[in-house]
């Protein structure tokens, strides 16, 4: 199983992007998931998380601008990013707990997708 992220790119401040994350390979679905980001020279930080039953949590810096969601039918987790700011520039990583066996799950990280916000 691998986590595949998509949706990053170069955008202007004030615009929007939507990131997607889905596991490839054989699995039984996503339990919990989260998006992290890491800017150059900074530590990786939690951006948003979502539980198996849809409870969400956000970093203070993105509250009101970013929305994490999930489509269980598509086994995909999204991060809708609105009103982007230059300080949102970072590589965004998906982290998910994936049910790989009927009675077993594992945590996976994606390789990241780059988001660059110009002023």
H/E element order: EEEEEEEEEEE
Separate helix tally: 0
Low-confidence stretches: none
What is the helix content? under 10%
Number of strands: 11
| Content-based structural category | mainly beta
Overall geometry: elongated
How is the main sheet built? Answer: 7 strands, mixed
Termini separation: 37 Å
Indicate the proportion of strand residues: over 45%
Mean pLDDT: 96
Radius of gyration: 14 Å
Overview of the molecule:
The chain is mostly beta strands and 119 residues long. Helix content is 0%, strand content 60%. It has no helices and eleven strands. It has strands spanning 2-6, 9-12, 17-24, 30-38, 45-50, 56-58, 66-71, 76-81, 90-101, 104-109, 113-118. The strands form two sheets. Strands 2, 4, 5, 6, 9, 10 and 11 form a seven-stranded mixed beta sheet that branches. Strands 1-3-8-7 form a four-stranded antiparallel beta sheet, with no helix packed on it. The termini are far apart. The model has no long low-confidence stretch (mean pLDDT 96).
Would you kindly provide a brief summary of this structure?
Helices cover 0% and strands 60% of the residues.
Describe how the helices and strands are arranged.
Elements: E1 2-6, E2 9-12, E3 17-24, E4 30-38, E5 45-50, E6 56-58, E7 66-71, E8 76-81, E9 90-101, E10 104-109, E11 113-118
Parallel strand pairs: 2-11
Antiparallel strand pairs: 1-3, 3-8, 4-5, 4-9, 5-6, 7-8, 9-10, 9-11
């Amino acid at each position: 199983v691998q986590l595949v992220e998509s949706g990053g790119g170069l955008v202007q401040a004030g615009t929007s992007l939507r990131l997607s994350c889905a596991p490839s390979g054989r699995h039984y679905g996503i339990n919990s998931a989260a998006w992290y980001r890491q800017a150059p020279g900074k530590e990786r930080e939690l951006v948003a998380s979502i539980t198996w039953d849809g409870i969400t949590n956000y970093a203070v810096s993105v509250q009101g601008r970013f929305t994490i969601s999930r489509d269980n039918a598509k086994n995909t987790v999204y991060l809708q990013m609105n009103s982007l700011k230059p300080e949102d520039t970072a590589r965004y990583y998906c982290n998910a707990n994936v049910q790989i066996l009927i009675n077993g799950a594992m945590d996976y990280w994606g390789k990241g997708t780059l988001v660059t916000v110009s002023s």
